[in-house]
Specification:
three-stranded antiparallel beta sheet; Rossmann fold; globular; alpha/beta
Length: about 350
Amino acid sequence: MSTTNLNIIGLARDVYKGLPTTLCAGCGHNSITNHLIKALYEFGVEPHRLAKMSGIGCSSKTPAYFVEQAHGFNGLHGRMPSAATGAKLANRELLVLGVSGDGDTASIGLGQYCHMIRRNLDCTYLVENNGCYGLTKGQFSATADAGSKQKNGKINEFTGIDLCGLAVELGASFVARSFSGDGKQLVPLLQAAFAHRGTAILDIVSPCVTFNDHVGSTKSYAYVKEHGFALHTPDFIIGSKEIEVEYEPGAVQDIAFEDGSHVLLRKLERDYDPTSRLGALAVIDETRERGELVTGLLYVDTAARDLCEREQLTQTPLAHLKEDDLRISREEWARLTAPLA
């Protein structure tokens, strides 16, 4: 086998592929899958240390289409964060990757989404957001923008839930938004999310070619391309023993992660600081008022403690502890239960 096409842990890209997709031809979710395969391959994720979690919906079928040799769990509708929490607490060495949708997250799963963020569970949480329920014939989802038009001509009269704005408000430590058709931006954002310790939210607009890719839809391919507002162009540098970062001072912001990785944010139209929560909320609100879709790394806090650290879990994964490690001696039990003098 040629070593020229192997990643940093010696695996070929084909290792990161999965089963053939059963989604509609041209579905934005399939583009996300391809970007995921590229991101995982370049990052050098060990398949046996990857846990793919999902709920119910078109989006939740995605884990079947990448890294076939990884662990996977398809949970109940809207309950994926609970399963992801259990997996991470049992084995903190796993890279937990949750794939959800706008219905699975913003409707039936909204409560679990909020509490997962509040606890800062160490996982990468992807929302494949198409603004409609693709499995039940294209009704508006909770993320559909007010005034958006359905394929049959119906207009949405309800305010959409902005999952990024909500995540920042709840204290998420990594919040980004991208577009399924923009691999140049999405791949480094995915890799930065993998490197982040804590809840990493990626809201990815993914046009539904069957029900929501038409004139009047704010989640269509044409609308996103016309109204997209990119904050920066990200580059990702994977951590190693020696890192050299070169960039023009004032033009690039360097965000360093605990594993030694870096994401470089090259400024485009404005001077934006992704470490400011108030700045993130402001730019989300400003662009929404203008009917634009802001993309990029909206907010990051690399110093926030994740759930395992807050709960003071042992560095040895709970799944690897033996009975002798957990059971105290009779003498210690007697000391702990002895009446106070």
